[in-house]
TrEMBL record:
Parts of the chain that traverse the membrane: 15-36, 48-67, 79-97, 103-122
InterPro entries per the UniProt record, alphabetical: DUF4345 (IPR025597)
Entry annotated with the keyword Transmembrane: yes
Keywords: Membrane, Transmembrane, Transmembrane helix
Record protein name field: DUF4345 domain-containing protein
Amino acid sequence: MASIDRERKLLQQTVALAAIVPAAIGLYGVLFGQALTGDAVSISAESHFRFLSGLLLGIGICFWSTVPGIEEKTNRFRILTLLIVIGGLSRLLGLVFTGLPSLFMIGGLAMELIVTPVLCLWQTRIANRYAERFGVAEP
């Protein structure tokens, strides 16, 4: 019993820390726009960049919302993971079309296509173990 509680706590801490990445990068993009890259872009591209940054900030906040009672937030966690993986696949497609991006973008790709799905699998494991223990599970 203590083992599952320890693992749940570790998952909560890991998700809380990992969610700092999209939240911080998203907030930076909202506040400073395309300044992150130093590239001059049109006002429309700047607006789109800030919108996408706001989505990233929102995704980070939504991941934080899964931390309390994480064993009961399977559906939310999966939807957020799906959004991140779709973004990662889009980034991967861009890599094929336009070439290798910066090291930071490769790091983002790893978070999107490896770290987030692994966290989702871990969350599912914890949810299933809690369901076995207490006889309740989210569909």
